[in-house]
Amino acid sequence: MSLEVVLLFVDIAVDALGAAREEIDALNVYPVPDGDTGTNMYLTVSAARDAVREATGGDPGADLGEALAAFSRGALLGARGNSGVILSEMMRAIARRLARSTPEERNAEVLAQALRLASDAAYAAVGTPVEGTILSVARAAAEAAEVTTEEPGARTRDVFTDAAEAARAALARTPGQLQALADAGVVDAGGRGLSVVLDAAETALTGRRPEPVLPRIGRHAIPVTTPTTGSGHPPGADLTPGGPSYEVMYLLDTDAEQVPALRERLAGLGDSLVVVGDERLWNVHVHVDDVGAAIEAGIEAGRPHRIRVTHFHDQVTQQAAQEREAARPREGRCVVVVSAGPGLTALFGEAGAVVVEGGPGRRPSTGDLLGAITGCGAQEVVVLPNDGDSVRAAQVAASTATQDTGVRVAVIPTQAQVQGLAALAVHEPGRGFDADVLEMTATARHARHGAVTVAARQAMTMAGPCEPGDALGVVAGDFAVVGSALADVATEVLERLVVGGGELVTIVSGADDPEGALAEHCTAWLAEHHPYVDAVVYDGGQERYPLLLAVE
């Protein structure tokens, strides 16, 4: 299996889960009927896809080992919900097995081994395995793959074709294994999501798109949607009779030796326990009544972060509110902007934009952007991510918003905060949507941008090696200047930006230039060397970058 196939697979899997997301959400009755399994699996695979795309730049000639490592980490960090965490562990197991093999060894037998390891990893991750779930579907796929390798001349494509077919058959059997599914007349939502992913793998290897088989109980077809609300459950329904009321998730930095005790502690607090990861980073998921005890268990084991707590009753209420919001008439146009600092937030807000907090080290999630897009109440939305690594999350959020609510969304791929400022300055709600987007896009693209920062570690840059504490100049997203003084590097960056011509320089001072000394130095330098160029200075308050610069 080549990197080209991996890149094709992740794209097909994300698209397929996106198309099946609402159907899978509606099937979600076990372990808690909170109607988000499809969304969680979609966001999990999207995060893995974004990570591998970022690591490779979409180049099929990139290193496969590095791509698989990025894929694994992206899946772990982006895993959402019970089924999303289990799916991430399965994908990571497959990636690890492929990474340990040479190109010549990536044959049918190795892929079958990878699927078996994925199934075993899924069972091992769950505190109390239950048949009739994603686990049963995973095991059936692994068993079918192993049988395929016993046939003479078995090919890799045969492994996934047979595994996907076995998964569909196992999915149809889930209502007979789990009473909650039989009572609701549906198949398992997590198993359906896994079946979609395996179908995507088959498509990537064969070009065929398998038709999903409509499962049946006896003579009666099992519906893939339910006749209630979009979540599959009436607003205000009691989701957890006799069960825990909260879902707790967090990432945990700890040694592997601490995990068994953590599992034991969490198992005594609730159910739906899943802990996955390796080395120092773990993803923890559990349903509990005592949220504080679940978090304290993590603190005792290591350092929990990115803590998410969901109250199931509130979740259903929120889903109902979102459905009402989707049905509410929308009007007007809104701009959603990612801001990297409090001063920038104020600037964007004064211009009428809806602001999502972000910046290096705290980039917004797809969910954050989706909430801003759907919550602004506009029929037309323009999104300015202002960061290259946030563009893909914005595009996924835009696609999801359009699918869910019909809102028209355009993502302008701004790479820097100053490009967002430039684009927002020419925004005109009175223009037609396409014309407004075109003008904002052109303005952002023509804004040459740079920045200055301080090196945190030893590294090799386009301008040569740097040491911790060196001043670094950024031009168009690349480290182009290395020096000892921030002021000298700032003027060098300015010279490179201005030499191509321009009428206006925008200077945004950061948290590390609280008195504006660097900004003042730059304006004085401009007045001396380029007196016909105007300059405007803002206090952005962004971290890590004492100055952001742009020339228009």
Automatic annotation (TrEMBL):
Gene3D superfamilies: 1.25.40.340
Pfam families, alphabetized: Dak2, FakA-like_C, FakA-like_M
Recorded coiled-coil stretches: none
Signal sequence range: none
Residues annotated as domain DhaL: 4-203
Domain of life from the UniProt record: Bacteria
InterPro entries registered for this protein in UniProt: DegV_domain_contain, DhaL_dom, DhaL_dom_sf, FakA-like_C, FakA-like_M, YloV-like
Protein name from the UniProt record: DAK2 domain-containing protein
